[in-house]
Amino acid sequence: MRIIVHNAKCQGHARCWAQAPDIFDLNDEGYILPGDIDVEEKDELLASRGARSCPERALEIDRTSDALLDRLLFNQHCGG
Ligand code: SF4
Fold first, then answer.
1. What fold does the segment set 2-74 form as a domain?
2. Among 6, 43, 59, 78, fewest CB within 10 Å belongs to which?
């Protein structure tokens, strides 16, 4: 899973960080650092909680890469 960071929308509430301080990096003023975040499978629940807690919708959960990979693996498995 990946989290797309729209850091122009960030208002520095630090709610994401309160949920998952190891996943969301904030600067000294409490604003999220720019750049997408790749989330390991074991951290997905925490990361999505943090992303959903953002009142500014600055954190978008992107599952497309997972979905594409699943389809690819499924096609390989089925020979199609
Ligand atoms: S919760 Fe949203 S607005 Fe607050 S620091 Fe995190 S990304 Fe920025």
1. Alpha-Beta Plaits (3.30.70)
2. 78
